[in-house]
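Deliverable D5.2: sample structural annotation.
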Amino acid sequence: MIEVPNKGLRRYARVEAGECAATVRQNGPGTESEPLAYVHVPRDAPKGGRQARPPFTVSGPNAEPLCSVRSSGPGTYEVYGDDGAPIGWITRRGGRILPWPRRVRWSVRPVGGVASVDAVVGTRKGWTVFLLISPLYFVCWAVMAAQGAVWLLLGEKGEAKKEAAWEMEPPTWTRWCAADGQDVVVEYHTGRVYRLAASRLDRRLAYAQAVLHVWDRA
């Protein structure tokens, strides 16, 4: 399992020169969160948005280059190895409600004719429950926002932040499955932690997809 924190990705333009925007770490009993890779984003790179994240590079724990990722169009990313040769493509198809509901979809396509792995974000059941309870959430949010405003007027900034911090996240459960079968190659539940199936996907592509996926939720 690996973990990819997203705080540095959100504020990559403010990261100190030479520092990484995110660290890919092992996650699990006995791993002690050992670093596996470092993600570097140019400080002057344009924001780009969900459909065109800025270019980034991934290096190993000893600073050895692993891969580089760059947008080649809306929702499309090219991934290159340390020698500059392409190793795969990652695509993101945005979600929408109208004219018919569609969840966010991810696809990782390695070079060389290897079968792609595809995923949709959230389950149908999860999104149904989310949409049903959303009205109740907005009522609760309005009440808490009003309480936060009162605390702010009283000069209690800490209490105001607590009231404003609560939010309901949309469904996050995501499984990348091989297009030629039902085997799960990458799995994400929550907490920016990903479970990788050994040897089923080039780890460089897995790291790149995990970074883009967690960045999407930053």
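Annotation notes: The first helix runs from residue 7 to 10. The longest strand covers residues 65-73.
The annotation will be released with the project's public dataset once the embargo ends.
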